[in-house]
Amino acid sequence: MSNLLISPSILSADFAKLGEEVADITTAGADMIHIDVMDGHFVPNITIGPQVVRALRSYSDKPFDVHLMIAPADPYLEAFAQAGADIISIHPEAGPHLHRSLQTITQLGKKAGVVLNPSTHETAIEHVIDCVDLILVMSINPGFGGQTFLPSQLPKIAALRTMIDRSGRKILLEVDGGVTPETARACIDAGADTLVAGTAAFKGGPSAYVANLAALKAAVA
Ligand code: DX5
Ligand code: ZN
């Protein structure tokens, strides 16, 4: 697949030098920068907030793909938009009014994404598909990097590909969790066009980033 997009997750980067890490992975060929925001409540881990997103903004000219694992998300959408997010993705379980939240993201001038947990059915997006620019399928339970890919999510990716194609809208179909050169192929075969990679992108440190991203692209070529 020639137009595969790779969105490295900085959750697996060296947090002591995050700016350099974002610059290095950008130079290595990242198409987007995936930023995992966790609140210790919606998921059992705590990461970063909008101030860090703002601080990182000048280290990459690629879109910031911000994955919000926080509840509620609504009070923070504007802050992440102003901090430099380009895509803001939310989980349906994070608030009572998914459609309204997606409208808010769009009104902030950003691309709106919906994230489906492993147990969340693809029909969760059926009646909001006209407000969606990206659908993110979790192939792990959110909260931590380095988990094992769940093949049970592949039929969901295929079902979403059919829904997207029927909609006629330009919607990215992204997969997040356990993506490696070994699992990437199945994601793309099921219909995904964008892959998040944490461990697979950042393993080995900066000198390995070009090879890491090339291995992912080669796996689906
Ligand atoms: C987990 C995050 C993922 C994570 C993926 O909740 O949403 O983006 O960084 O890490 P890997 O690629 O190591 O599974
Ligand atoms: Zn993520």
TrEMBL record:
Keywords: Carbohydrate metabolism, Isomerase, Metal-binding. Transmembrane segments: none annotated. Belongs to the ribulose-phosphate 3-epimerase family. It comes from the Bacteria. This is Ribulose-phosphate 3-epimerase. The active site is at D36 (proton acceptor), D176 (proton donor). The keyword S-adenosyl-L-methionine does not apply. Catalyzes the reversible epimerization of D-ribulose 5-phosphate to D-xylulose 5-phosphate. PANTHER family: RIBULOSE-5-PHOSPHATE-3-EPIMERASE. Gene3D superfamilies: Aldolase class I. A divalent metal cation binds at H34, D36, H67, D176. The gene is rpe. Substrate binds at S9, H67, G143, F144, G145, G146, D176, G177, G178. Its EC number is 5.1.3.1. It is an enzyme of class 5 (isomerase).
